[in-house]
Amino acid sequence: MPQIFDAVLVLSFGGPERREDVVPFLENVLRGRNVPRERLLQVAEHYYHFDGRSPINAQNRTLVAALKAELAAAGLALPVYWGNRNWQPYLEDTLREMKEAGVTRALAFVTSAFGSYSGCRQYLEDIERARVAVPDAPLVEKLPAFCDHPGFIETMSEYTGRALEAVPAAQREKAELVFTAHSIPVSMAASSPYVAQLLRACDRVAAAVAHREWTLAYQSRSGPPNQPWLEPDILDKLRELAARGVADVVVAPIGFISDHMEVLYDLDTEAKALAAELGLRLIRASTPGTHPRFVKMIRELIEDRLAGRGVEASARQPQCGSPECCAPPSRGRPA
To answer: What CATH number does the domain containing 198 carry?
Structure first.
């Protein structure tokens, strides 16, 4: 089958890289979400803790470089571009660059493993909005969510296994394995396969590391206090474990593909501080980052699409990009 794509686009969330960009960045993220200004400024403090610099842009630059090398080694002559939803380089500017380079049709890898409105359909809307703003912009097709892909599961299993091995052997069997993912509004979860996909992925990773007892917790809530979001929060989970007399906790941030701000602050700073206060030993597993198996997975997703293969719709998950996939959440009054 002839190749019908002439570029790859890595599409991500974006993040500030200096203190003066933090509030404008958060205003971009929270626009239209009715989040109190006080909460925005609280989140800003997380970034100021790291001098206003989110690591996500640097991590995406590294991922782009690794993907370029992976594609070249496989003989795939596809340039790799990078654009963001909420900060520079903005997707619109990247599409303009691609157009000027003669790109006509690109495959987009979105840095979100699981299907939800914010992690899937909103990126499709971002693409269409940017294409409207750039006359004659390249066509862009989003690659499917990769939560079930062996490359993702194998990478998370390796890192989770390493974290468990850091627990003393005599205590390892009793260690609590807690997977975490970004909390989202309950209404958004109801219109997507997010929770079901997370549970399947957690179960597969736990089986791979032979640690069948596990729980799923959530982190990084940012919505208004009167809106129900997925629970339990990781901090509440740690309090519960300490009350039960647990000594060791391994936290595997399965919902994140790199160690960006919500991992560094919410887990490595806030959760670790609470764990120390509670007398828990907390060990965090790494995120996929640029693990060779994870980068190879992206190449495999691209090769599958170039060969006309893709993820088919099923009873569990509609076809990625279909009208039924990750519909916008209800904007009605919260339950």
So the answer is: 3.40.50.1400
